[in-house]
Amino acid sequence: MQTDTVPALRVSDLRKTYDNGVEALKGVSLDVAPGDFYALLGPNGAGKSSLIGIVSSLVNKSSGTVEIFGTSIDKDRDGAMRLIGLVPQELNFNMFEKPLDICVNYAGFYGIPRAQALLRAEEELKNAQLWDKADKMSRTLSGGMKRRLMIARAMMTRPRLLILDEPTAGVDIEIRRGMWQTLKAINAAGTTIILTTHYLEEAENLCRNLAIIDHGRIVTEGPMRSLLAKLDVEGFIFDIDGELPAQLPVIEGTALVASDGHTLDMDMPRAMDLNRVFAAFAAAGIRVRSMRTKSNRLEELFVRLTGKPEVTDTDALTPHAQDAQERPA
């Protein structure tokens, strides 16, 4: 019996070994709660794409179990897939179709009557701020609009679980932040979202919980705030009035550098008293106009756990050609 206490996604001891011998997943287990906004992070070749491919039934698993709101992908694949909306990283719609037709035709694949699909398409295109482009050729849309169209199309089936694979890849920061608002609204309306991204600021701003996967294993998981609180270093940016002195003050335990002639970048132990920092600035004749916290805490956590400097947007362990060969008929 499905209840609100059943995880939106339950993965248990999931393993995947490809024909070339690459072991992409080595016993991955995780639960995603209903209504959560969940980040799945990992470096190139970590196993993210394999995990998403198996959950969305595009890649065959070697062993383990996957349940979507209590529905097993082994026992009821079609039922499980009806609960999922997938937004892949690649743009995979017909550029010579109109957004309205793309959405309506997609709904038709799932047996949604055309009259109902037309109403849903209008609603979802409006939510994506694309209704004024509904009858334009999709190839004329901007990169950000095409990304939003992918989300609108996925929402046509009213999925309970929306999986987003690098949804803002290749778009500028203004468009990205606009898409954040769209995704927050979808989540607030009750849809569970799983996000993979290599923009660490994106994960920190959007997600409440996360898992970091590396070499086919989950290396850490839990609430975003709790994981970030484990860091013993905090970063600040100081905007300075006037010019910086030729010699910056030396403050024991901190790393202080000048980003430019009017900005200081500092990492310091979380337990350190900021008054000590301001006293050193004052002694050096540095006047602080404003300060802000750096948004790189999640990146620091990632580096500590995996030893890698950044999260990339591809997964070398799952080439598209190999994935395509494994897609179920």
Automatic annotation (TrEMBL):
Pfam families listed in its UniProt record: ABC_tran (PF00005)
InterPro entries membership: AAA+_ATPase, ABC_transporter-like_ATP-bd, ABC_transporter-like_CS, ABC_transporter_ATP-binding, P-loop_NTPase
The keyword Magnesium appears for this protein: no
Keyword terms: ATP-binding, Nucleotide-binding, Transport
Domain ABC transporter: 9-240
Coiled-coil segments: none
GO MF term list: ATP binding; ATP hydrolysis activity
Taxonomic superkingdom: Bacteria
Transmembrane segments: none
The keyword ATP-binding is annotated on this UniProt entry: yes
Protein name listed in UniProt: ABC transporter ATP-binding protein
The organism of origin for this protein: Thermomonas carbonis
